[in-house]
Amino acid sequence: MVIEHQIDPYRKARGIVRRLLRHPGGVAGLVVIAWVVAVALLAPSLSPADPLAQNLEARLQPPSRLHLMGTDDFGRDILSRVMYGARISMTVGFVAIGIAVAGGIAFGLVAGFYTTGRWGRWIDHAIMRTSDIMLAFPTVLLAIAIVTAFGPSLRNAMLAIAIIYIPRFVRLVRASVLVEKEESYIEAGQALGVSVPRLLFRHLLPNALSPVIVQATLGLAEAIIEAAALSFLGLGATPPTPEWGAMLSEGRAYLRLAPWVTFFPGLAIFLVVVSFNLLGDALRDALDPRLHR
Q1: What does the alpha-carbon distance between residue 250 and residue 239 come to, in Å, rounded to a whole number?
Q2: Which of 113, 163, 245, 268 could form a disulfide with 232 if both were Cys (CB 3.0 to 4.6 A apart)?
Q3: Phi and psi (nearest 5°) for 233?
Q4: Mean pLDDT estimate for the chain
Q5: Which pLDDT does position 117 carry in this prediction?
Q6: Which residues are within 8 A (CB) of 220 and not within 5 positions of it... i.e. 6 or more apart?
Q7: Beta bridge partners of 71
Q8: For residue 60, which of 253, 291, 269 has the smallest C-alpha distance?
Q9: Residues 6+ positions from 72 with CB-CB distance below 8 Å
Q10: CA-to-CA distance for 137 and 155, rounded, in angstroms?
Q11: What are the b/e assignments for 159-178, b being 16+ CB within 10 Å?
Q12: pLDDT at position 6, please?
């Protein structure tokens, strides 16, 4: 039997949750994120109007009892558009980072485990040099290049964001695997003839997940900003899609005349990004065993 290098997972999870709930910033971030996710899921029921319905007679109206966040240049209710925009932005963030995490774990495990032997060194160098080349480019510039190559659309923007974040998780997982594979439980597993896939996914991966979870949480904030930036440039969501970045782009011509058109989508981006950063910092503290000895 392979020596397990972990405590009771349920006890460990309870300890993490308990430490997370003691972190005021983490709790605040978690509450805001839960609220935004709930609004996104219930947008069809909660939104006061159709986000695409135009009413030119009510264009550029300031916030009022009828339109709590005002209306845009086509008379569309901004509150409804912000609610539906939460669905798009959160979906883009979770899907893009989910793909990036899956790719990073797959390549990082292989690169970190196979570092010896002729073929092992070749695989490691091929994966890491490709990651280094991708990390050498500014993320926005690389995302713009990918979207331009595949064509402007929200789906391609999501794919571009996933691709540019894969190298980060590759390096992170590889570094964790290099440390963990020197532990005695891995040597015991190899001596007992445990298969490589079982060693990687049953023993190495669970002990290397803590930094990945933290980076994924912080990456969600960055992915939402990247998606908004691409939509702002016209490379992501296209009008009349109620996406926060596209709403900022549409309202920039009315900054002086009707600042609420850009203020509320920008505020939504700000709150979500800050909340994910607060939650990421709290998770980092809760998952770091050196802080709780």
Answers
A1: 8
A2: 245
A3: -85, 0
A4: 86
A5: 61
A6: 93, 94, 97, 276
A7: 77
A8: 253
A9: 59, 60, 78, 81, 247, 250, 251, 258, 261
A10: 22
A11: bbbbbbbbbbbbbbbbebbb
A12: 46
Per-domain residue ranges for the chain? 10-40+76-291
Res 292: pLDDT: 52
Q: What is the mean pLDDT of residues 212-224?
A: 91
The Cα–Cα gap between 270 and 280 comes to: 15
H/E element, 145:
helix 139-150
Kindly tell me if the per-residue pLDDT of 202 is higher than 80.
no
Helices 78-113, 244-251: inter-axial angle, 10-degree rounding? 130
CA distances from 85 to 7, 31, 75, 145, 279 (A): 42, 19, 17, 25, 21
Residue 2: per-residue pLDDT: 42
Query: How does DSSP assign 242-266, residue by residue?
Result: --HHHHHHHHGGGTTT-THHHHHHH
- Euclidean distance between CA atoms 223 and 233, whole angstroms: 15
* 14-72 tens-digit pLDDT: 777 788 888 888 899 999 999 999 999 999 999 999 999 998 888 999 999 999 999 99
Residue 102 CB neighbours (<10 A): 13
